[in-house]
Amino acid sequence: MNNTPNFSSEFLENYLKFGLGSMPKSDIDALVMALIERYGFGDNAPLVRLSNQAVSELLRTPVSKVKKIRYDAALKFGGKVEDQAKDRLLAALVVATLEPEGEKVCLVIEDTLAKNWLQGRLKERQQIFDHSFNTEIIKVSAAGLFAVLEGLFGKKEIKVFQAGYEAAKKNIDAAQRVELFKKLAQKFVEGTAKAAGVGVYSVVKAHLGIL
Questions:
Q1: Which end of the chain is more exposed for a tag (fewer CB within 10 A), N or C?
Q2: What's the pLDDT tens digit per position in 81-111?
């Protein structure tokens, strides 16, 4: 008998936990979303790698509803919030960019749970963030970002990343400064993802071909 978890076994385990018919429809929707993000469906790969817009088109569901259900799925069936947020933060760092003046980092985080978690961490450290132009883009000072990263990942790796950033910031050419930061961020993510294990690896590898 195969005891490896799969879509159907996890669905039934959660659906029948409190008795047949006891799970509200909203929770069923969240459970299905959590499972198709993990396992995919039909010929589709796991949806966790897709943007809200791509999932909206695939499932023929409004983007606003996709965001809501994804948030519920992560909160109720995604496991420990911090672990999820760490995975999504690493994935965001892969495509993060440095503003031309070199002081702020732009992160694109569609995942509501991870975004709220990161903003909470920044507030705890009295760090200012900005998403006034687009709620999925968070602009944070490099100092604030490193302060959050220090509490999550290996200090040795953070020091290397931060030292590289300080060196890159001294580059007079803004375009070169931005490009150097991108390479530093990707190198940091590559090392951290491999050290952290399968969970982080699976989220990040779709964005970083060298993993």
A1: N
A2: 888 888 888 888 888 888 877 788 888 888 8
